């Protein structure tokens, strides 16, 4: 068996779950956060960094790799793992999210979605069958169905997109041929509980080895996102992993786990880092802030990451003011470390039956940016 | 004794020397190449990378650190070593080279050199005394006298600049107070043998613990540079280290060692790397070249660097095409590795009495870019 999921423990006070995913490239303790390596590299990090950070799964984007360097090139060089020098588990998305983010550059129909490359304007048609072939050439451990991600508040568009997403899911399943890759279905339905329910039922009937929840963190409020998770997660089979796509703010990870999510991915930690924003246990800080100019303290007292063990806020401030490449790297290390470490703590708390207290304590200390606007592409890798 | 130099062996067939420099932050086996960390970071690398690469000395630029973050800030944070997290030996230049490169933005007089910051246009006066104070605040192990670097072919300007450089050297020596920092004098004189001789004699009379040769690799031909080294090096005391400033092309290192040079620094390996150019034993290659698109080989067969051990030319090509930060880092690692490794081989060859053969073999295999134009600021860190 190439792929498996063991549900090890369920929290009494919430829907939080402790589990383990097995893939041909190793195991993933869940709940887990996957850093995003859009173009076959987690921006500013190398594979050794990722191992040292304790990342057990990374995500890479089919849309980007299909366009550059091309899935055939990656396949010729031995597949994505070998190409990028990462021997751990990889998940590739279907490219659907990126393509549907190409406002004005794409047209979707039942056959698939026609789009123009953001690189050279060339025209391409993504069908469920092509997206399966491309992901098979890339060779990730977990691959995703082509889905249509609709604006969450648009009921009519969500109904139409959902029918297509379901038809495409069946076509992806039929086209999928590599036994060493696990194909996940993606539940859609915007902020509409009945559509989410319909989607969960339709897809579970197709019996995928795992299920993603898509179309969230794309402009809806946090309350709406939570409501959709509460509707959807209980409808998914308990013995399959549940993956919330494109979500990665610390508070969202904690809230997602409480609602039964096992996997998360997001560009947020890496993108924020390149913009000088660091996660701390108290909330976000911006390294460009003048108050850090002479601050000898690390970004977070007690943090075990390479950055905090060796460098002061003053040095990080200097690196960003001076636009030095090392700044992007050190900030990225810290942000990814915080999320990976947070997931480790969450797993420990679930295992010891104290997840509710841990969640409460974390959220009490963490200053959330209120109802932050997170439109399409803002927290997910766009173009 | 804080600083020392031991001459361990002299080559029979050339002026090559094997030695060891002792500093408060460790020893440096010479001949050695020092990577440049202009703004308190060797661009794209972290201190652990530098240790792993075997770099034993790094250079940082007084001009840049004086302007940003300010030497007082660095001092307040415990000095440059602590600020940048590098516990090995550091050399700071005087800032003179950068200031004299600010064409149209500076005026020099006997007192010092008045210039406008490239960052905000603010006006500053570098005097020998200020430059000493700034370098003492930074706290490097080896510091440099303020000198005036003249256009090498301009005889009149070189005569005037040399008188100033000598007067400033004496003032630097008088102003220098930290016993744990070794102050080096800088021989100038353009491409004029008599001026170089005069400079070497004047400065050695001041009895510095080490001597730099400046004003080379700034627009003169390689033949002119070699001639000046042949004139100057024999006039410097055998028991003091000799440092050729701003030189770092592989062929120049070999040629410099043959003429009695112990230390080199240059931004060339790091700057070329960020422009996708890699050193190999056969010469330079450019990673953007389309011929590498599907090349599964490493940049250099048999190379022991992290980059060559883990990544193909095809992957490096992809990273540069996709403008990924990891590309700059991996290319920088390879280029610095090659120079540090080349110096290690040179030391081994001198120790075993086969430097002449090693030099000949290296130069026979290495395709030099013929009489490359290397104007001011091209191979040294400019602004």
Task: Describe it.
2 copies of one chain form a homodimer. Chain A has 383 residues and is an alpha/beta fold. Helix content of chain A is 40%, strand content 17%. An 8-stranded parallel sheet of chain A has the order 4-14-13-12-11-10-6-5. Chain A has a 3-stranded antiparallel sheet with strand order 1-2-3. In chain A, helix 8 runs parallel beside helix 9, helix 11 packs antiparallel against helix 14 and helix 13 packs across helix 14. Chain A is globular and about 60 Å long. The two termini of chain A are 36 Å apart. The model of chain A is unreliable at 373-383 (pLDDT under 50).
The pLDDT mean of chain A sits at 95
Please report which band the strand proportion of chain A falls in: under 5%, 5-15%, 15-25%, 25-35%, 35-45% or over 45%. Answer: 15-25%
**Which strand order do you get reading across the main beta sheet of chain A?**
4-14-13-12-11-10-6-5
Give the helix tally of chain A.
Answer: 15
- Structural class computed from helices and strand pairing of chain A: alpha/beta
Q: Helix share of residues of chain A?
A: 25-40%
Low-confidence stretches of chain A: 373-383
- Most extensive interface, chain pair and sizes: A-B, 39 and 39 residues
Overall shape of chain A: it is globular
Q: How many E strands of chain A? A: 16
N- and C-termini, Cα separation of chain A: 36 Å
Rg over CA atoms of chain A: 20 Å
Largest sheet of chain A: 8 strands, parallel
Oligomer: homodimer
């Amino acid at each position: 068996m190439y792929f498996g999921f063991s549900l090890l423990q369920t929290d009494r006070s919430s829907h939080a779950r402790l589990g383990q995913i097995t893939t041909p490239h190793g195991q993933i303790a869940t709940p887990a956060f996957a850093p995003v390596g859009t173009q076959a590299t987690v921006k500013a990090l190398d594979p050794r960094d990722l191992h040292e950070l304790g990342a057990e799964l990374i995500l890479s984007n089919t849309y980007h790799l299909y366009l550059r360097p091309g899935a055939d090139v990656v396949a010729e060089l031995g597949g994505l793992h070998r190409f990028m020098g990462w021997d751990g588990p990889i998940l590739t998305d279907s490219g659907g999210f990126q393509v549907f983010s190409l406002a004005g550059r794409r047209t979707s129909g039942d056959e698939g979605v026609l789009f123009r490359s953001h690189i050279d304007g060339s025209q391409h048609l993504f069908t469920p069958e092509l997206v399966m072939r491309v992901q098979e050439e890339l060779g990730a451990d977990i691959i995703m169905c082509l889905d249509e991600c609709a604006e969450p508040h648009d009921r009519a568009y969500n109904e139409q997109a959902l029918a297509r997403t379901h038809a495409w899911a069946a076509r992806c399943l039929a086209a999928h041929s590599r036994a060493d890759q696990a194909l996940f279905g993606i539940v859609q339905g915007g902020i509409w509980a009945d559509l989410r329910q319909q989607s969960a039922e339709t897809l579970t009937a197709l019996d995928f080895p795992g299920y993603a929840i898509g179309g969230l963190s794309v402009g809806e409020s946090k309350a709406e996102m939570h409501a959709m998770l509460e509707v959807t997660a209980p409808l998914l089979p308990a013995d399959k992993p549940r993956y919330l796509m494109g979500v990665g703010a610390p508070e969202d990870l904690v809230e997602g786990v409480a609602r039964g999510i096992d996997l998360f991915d997001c560009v947020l930690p890496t993108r924020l880092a390149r913009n000088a924003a660091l996660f701390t246990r108290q909330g976000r800080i911006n390294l460009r802030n003048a108050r850090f100019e002479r601050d000898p303290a690390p970004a977070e007292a007690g943090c075990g990451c390479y950055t905090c063990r060796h460098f002061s806020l003053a040095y990080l401030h200097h690196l960003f003011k001076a636009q030095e490449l090392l700044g992007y790297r050190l900030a990225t290390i810290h942000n990814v470390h915080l999320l990976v470490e947070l997931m480790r703590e969450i797993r420990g708390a679930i295992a010891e039956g104290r997840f509710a207290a841990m969640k409460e304590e974390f959220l009490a200390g963490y200053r959330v940016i209120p109802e932050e606007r997170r439109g399409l592409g803002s927290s997910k890798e766009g173009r």
